[in-house]
Amino acid sequence: MKMQGLPSRSFLFAVLTTGVVGAVFAQGKPYPVFTPDNLDLTMKALGPNVAGTSASLAEGDYTTAKERAIRSREQLARTVPFWRDQEREDAIAFLRTVLSRLDALDTVLSSASIDGARARQIAVEISEGCTACHTVYR
């Protein structure tokens, strides 16, 4: 039942929604979704996964190597917003290189006939990419 002289529910909802959305945009830069502490924790988890990938490849355990490579890619990709917020284009370039090598490794490890030598070479390239970034940012 609508009472005369009172605004409708849809009008009140529209006003409330506009106010909330306006407040969100008025805050300026949003809360950082990936902080330096997040980066540190991610890198500490990522390092053993990358090393484990290489170790699994050396042992010929391609299933575990693939699992670790996929996890490494997930962890590394999450750091991109941090470097974008810091406006570090060189770090983003390092990331893109390593991410593309992780994708290449996944492709090799997903093939019906796995080329172990190629997989190990890509793992070396991944390690070199990590080292290049760490030389600048560690």
- Report the strand count: 0
Largest sheet data: none
Low-pLDDT ranges? none
How far apart, in Å, are the first and last alpha carbons? Answer: 66 Å
Integer count of domains? 1
Write the H/E string, N to C: HHHHHH
Report the C-alpha radius of gyration, rounded: 23 Å
Tally the helices: 6
| Level-2 CATH architecture | Up-down Bundle
Mean pLDDT: 88
Output the structural class.
Answer: mainly alpha
Described by the principal axes of the CA atoms, the overall outline is elongated
Helix content: over 70%
CATH fold naming: Four Helix Bundle (Hemerythrin (Met), subunit A)
Question: Which oligomerization state do the chains in this entry correspond to?
Answer: single chain
CATH structural class? Mainly Alpha
What portion of residues belong to β-strands? under 5%
Task: Set down the secondary structure blueprint.
Blueprint: H1 9-26, H2 36-59, H3 62-77, H4 80-85, H5 89-110, H6 116-137
Helix pairs in contact: 2-3, 2-6, 3-5, 5-6
Summary, kept brief:
The chain has 138 residues and is mainly α. 78% of the residues lie in helices and 0% in strands.
